[in-house]
Amino acid sequence: MQYAKLLVQPARRLNPELIISEWNNLLRIFASLVLKTPPQHIIVQKLSSYGHQNRTKRALWKYDSIFRSLNLLEFVDSPPLRQNVQRALNRGENYHQLRRAIAYANFGKLRYRTQEKQQLWSECSRLLANCVIFYNAAIVSRMLEERRAACDLAGVAQLTQVAPIAWQHINFYGRYEFRSRVAPIDLERVVAALLQNTSSGTEHGA
Q1: Using CA atoms, how far apart are residues 150 and 26, in angstroms rounded to an integer?
Q2: What are the residue ranges in the chain where pLDDT is below 70?
Q3: Rounded distance between C-alpha atoms, residue 46 and residue 60, angstroms
Q4: Would residue 152 be called left, alpha or beta, if left means φ above 0 and alpha means ψ between -120 and 50 degrees?
Q5: Tally of CA atoms within 13 A in the half-sphere of 56 that contains its CB
Q6: Half-sphere exposure of 86 (CA within 13 A, CB side)
Q7: CA–CA separation, 183 vs 70, rounded Å?
Q8: pTM beyond cutoff 0.70
């Protein structure tokens, strides 16, 4: 009843005696996970094979509950942490949207029936997404260097908040040529044009 008026209430009581009695077994599990001897999936499989009433398994759950509770309380008390988590979730969702945008160039359909070809298509989609992110990151990094050289603190602060996951400026519809030699992208000219446009926009807004 002492937690009845609290917004976040504990769901169960901790059993420290169980953790203490099984501490040596827990240390062996932690050491094996760190040293990776045996591999982690073997340890997980072995723990999964234990019954629910196994003392070591129950102690591990209870010990994990301590850290999950601490992380939850920190998440509740820390606005910066919540913002960082939300930003990471947004970037993850943006990445999935980029993958869907690439797949939509194929009308959003997997045209291959075998698992091997579907996996190949998935890896090709991942490769194209990484190429887009690398291209954007190269542009943003170069713009950041120019802003720092010009001592533009406002521009630097703005660019540090930019995630390199965008594709509105890229045409996914067409034919990809990987074997023919093409002229490399003039990154300096692209950056110069972007810097000029952003500077003009700032002056116009002022």
Answers
A1: 55
A2: 1-2, 105-112, 176, 199-206
A3: 13
A4: beta
A5: 14
A6: 7
A7: 54
A8: no
